[in-house]
TrEMBL record, chains A, B:
One of its GO terms (cellular component) is extracellular space. The keyword Coiled coil does not apply. Homotetramer; composed of two disulfide-linked dimers. GO terms for molecular function: copper ion binding; dopamine beta-monooxygenase activity; L-ascorbic acid binding. Its cofactor is Cu(2+). The keyword Disulfide bond applies. Keywords: Catecholamine biosynthesis, Copper, Cytoplasmic vesicle, Disulfide bond, Glycoprotein, Membrane, Metal-binding, Monooxygenase, Oxidoreductase, Signal-anchor, Transmembrane, Transmembrane helix, Vitamin C. This is Dopamine beta-hydroxylase. InterPro entries: Cu2_ascorb_mOase-like_C, Cu2_ascorb_mOase_CS-1, Cu2_ascorb_mOase_CS-2, Cu2_ascorb_mOase_N, Cu2_ascorb_mOase_N_sf, Cu2_monoox_C, DBH-like, DOH_DOMON.
Amino acid sequence: MQAHLTHQHCWNSLPSPSVREAASMYSTAVAIFLVILVAALQSSEPPESPFPYHILLDPDGILELSWNISYVQEVIHFQLKVQGLRAGVLFGMSDRGELENADLIMLWTDGNRSYFADAWSDQKGQIHLDAQQDCQLLQVQRTSDGLSLLFKRPFVTCDPNDYLIEDDTVHLVYGILEEPFQSLEAINTSGLYTGLQRVQLLKSEVPTPTMPADVQTMEIRAPDVLIPDNETTYWCYVTELPQDFSQHHIIMYEAVVTEGNEALVHHMEVFQCAAEFKSFPLFNGPCDSKMKPDRLNYCRHVLAAWALGAKAFYYPEEAGVAFGGQGSSRYLRLEVHYHNPRNIQGRRDSSGIRLYYTATLRQFNAGIMELGLVYTPVMAIPPQETAFVLTGYCTDKCTMLALPTSGIHIFASQLHTHLTGRKVVTVLARDGQERMVVNRDNHYSPHFQEIRMLKKVVSVFPGDVLITSCTYNTEGKKLATVGGFGILEEMCVNYVHYYPQTELELCKSAVNDGYLQKYFHQVNSFNNEEVCTCPQASVPEQFTSVPWNSYNRDMLKALYRFAPISMHCNKTSAVRFQGEWNLQPLPEITSTLKDRTPNCPNGQAVSRTSPATVINWGQG
Amino acid sequence: MQAHLTHQHCWNSLPSPSVREAASMYSTAVAIFLVILVAALQSSEPPESPFPYHILLDPDGILELSWNISYVQEVIHFQLKVQGLRAGVLFGMSDRGELENADLIMLWTDGNRSYFADAWSDQKGQIHLDAQQDCQLLQVQRTSDGLSLLFKRPFVTCDPNDYLIEDDTVHLVYGILEEPFQSLEAINTSGLYTGLQRVQLLKSEVPTPTMPADVQTMEIRAPDVLIPDNETTYWCYVTELPQDFSQHHIIMYEAVVTEGNEALVHHMEVFQCAAEFKSFPLFNGPCDSKMKPDRLNYCRHVLAAWALGAKAFYYPEEAGVAFGGQGSSRYLRLEVHYHNPRNIQGRRDSSGIRLYYTATLRQFNAGIMELGLVYTPVMAIPPQETAFVLTGYCTDKCTMLALPTSGIHIFASQLHTHLTGRKVVTVLARDGQERMVVNRDNHYSPHFQEIRMLKKVVSVFPGDVLITSCTYNTEGKKLATVGGFGILEEMCVNYVHYYPQTELELCKSAVNDGYLQKYFHQVNSFNNEEVCTCPQASVPEQFTSVPWNSYNRDMLKALYRFAPISMHCNKTSAVRFQGEWNLQPLPEITSTLKDRTPNCPNGQAVSRTSPATVINWGQG
């Protein structure tokens, strides 16, 4: 597959009438396509407002996407810049980044004329014109090194072949056409150079608090790392705060990505080490290195996290993250995830995170609380499941004990699973009724974990229940996937960022082990003791020996829906709040939230334009 | 509650302008109501074609409904005749005949003026105007003894407050307003005289075959029965065919209902007795009488069945039901279900069924095959379930053995459950894929079991699978409901009428008993042997001792989805086809049919008229 698309033979062979001359072609209809001139489009729309969001779509930086959001009109304006365009480009969205069943816009040439259309790919990757054209082309411009497209798209189109743009992760897909196609239907995505990029398109636009006059910055950056030519590298770098660094509030942070490496730096996190150790070795190397000191496992308290596409993270005006001072470790660990699928060699990088902090402490300390499942093998997912759900609870009993009467206010959230996680949601329930979604990602990817500002702050009061559910896909597995710390084990966690900080660090659950043992006993009795799920075996061993027929799968689901739970209602990872936390009843939920489905029948505004657009532009 | 509404004081107080005079009122708008004159409506629509379908809605015959169907326009025209109208009437449809959450048309007066509107009742029975008026009033006429309304309604309106009219049972509801109401919103259905009537509105309009010249008729009628003044009576009457009655084909039958008793005769069936007994006692009395000879239990082979609202039943031109002649019993049993909720006394009845038959045998014998579940307690429904599904299978192994290569052709179907049945559906699967619905009733009522002509004949070939699922509501029960013959036990059956007749009379399944015992063993082990579900106990006793928590419910569902089945692939109720029928695998279904949802977004044609209509009519 050709990587660099610098030649332009197809493009050069296009007739290049001026924009004015193009008007004479208005009445020429090509096949089923209605002709709309770019000239007309260009004159009818004023240039768009600047685009606050940018991302490179491909590792070579051929495609650059910028966008802005109108929450009032529920419309996104996209600007797509293409370098060294050959014969066309496709761009779109799909459920999980596949090129099949994707919602696409297509720019292509038949060698003579060029077209723009709203399209979709079927389950075999073949491309079809959308019956309803919802992507409106506003501008096509030659640039010095390629082309720039400007188009807009409503969040909701009511076209069943279109992607529904929601608050969560969006898998953008792209492809490059290297030769002309006689028609749209002649294109199959399987023959193209394609890829995907994940992003949250509908970012929160909470107004940015102004920085105080005494704001200072500190960069936690990798020290001139030679990026390994492996697809995946987690780089670990330990550094320390100055001696006698007093307590400050982090009030904002942002990524500092070395120029040219934008497509390689996937995500970064800064962790604070545990205060219980006086010092930590200043390690600098791959996180999976055998040389990495074990003590670094105690550097897990998240101070800042950034992922591809994320902008600067601002704390609310009334809160900041305390760091420095008494009772807090001076040691910080930076983790950089390099994603280098093309195995580029010799690239050097000094990316990291820039912390903005102030000595003038804000009203509240911000805190991070862990919701979801305890890291224990008793919560497991059978193999070959397409959408198995595990749920962790933060019960009313725990919030009653640990939260102040005035409540806490969650303003941001970071969802976390390991490799089989596909969806994550946390819902708040009060008086047995689900009331609101704290954070939901129906297109969650373990490869894209950002801290997201909530569009609306969620207040949690004593007695409230927080229910975190994760959906897993284990189609690729032969054995059960148990809960745990390992990358091949699973987690279900929502790190919520809130204020005022409380002692509650962890509010999670797992099924009661005694009930799980009853399940294994049942599996055994149903299978005539052919399978050893003996209690002497470890829980992972027991899960490994379960024969995964539909009955044993359904029973496990039924067990997780029914059995009492063990709660972790903890101050720090070891210290529990006082009380009985074993054999707790599952929270009773009498009414659940319904999925918000867009209200399409009653004349949802959709922009319908002509079936396809013939485009022309002057040559650079 | 007043039963007979012969006075008309409110109605008499209405001004009674002639239709012509009414034109002067055109511009008067009352409150939010737009005025549309009946006069104008009358002139704009030609008189409708005759109404082939009729039904009395209430036991007193105050409300008579007639209708016709346009399958091309997907519209029903209704004619509602009201006797002795006081202050108004409501008519409509709801899920199961309740007056809450009903889709209604309302005719009411405020004492001065009268109105017609498309409306709906909320969950408390309060009535509201529909935002979208889909019932179009075409004519209002005074009659000698009341009023006649003509209106039309599309099958599908896309109004979420409207009922979706489908092929299956429709629960019609009605109510009589005895006094004026100042507004629609002031009406609550709970204060009215109301009721329900079940009917299949969208009847099959398969063209009626012409009767041959030699057609003869025979009436099987109750001999001048004094209808008991109980709400429910099943009357049994045994009669016999003439000596030496040779084989004939029944090619049609229809109900003969004694005039005046239309509202009391609920359903009737004619059964042929078993050929194995030479004679049967000529019993005539209530079917539950202690005097009824036990031998009548052998009169179960259905020859004809009629239920309220059903028209004549015609066999396809190429087939008829063989009766008479060698190897067939001369004895017939008529069963009449009298429904007398108002305990009317002294009414005499000679209703029955008129058989049309011919000595010129048709090409094929028609047969009846029983699909669904075996009558056995191993198939059970836990108590307090709102929609528990049991499924019976007719497997490929059985159809392979029993059906001719050219297949059989199902042209009619009668669904059957006992009192907790709420839905029944039979689906045909081929090569592991569900292909078509044989018959479905999502509003099935055990009180309304008709033989229905299929709109499309379904051909079944060797290797096909027929899957019959019944949905039960056991909210009123404290103990499990097991399968069986008793009225408090349950059944799940589809009697399909087909030709050419085969030896296969019964193709049904039930869960393997050994696997059910494993389930009981599991229930026991999970509950620490607190509950005795010992195998010495009978299956109903075992089900009675299950503690019905969510785990045991889910496990039972999982068992029915997983466990092997025992097949009844029978020639007559005792004789099985040769082969191994125990421990059969459940049919594997890889793709299921989707529920057809009406395609509303893309401009489904709905008739929108004014919010409400002020009506006037001349006084009789």
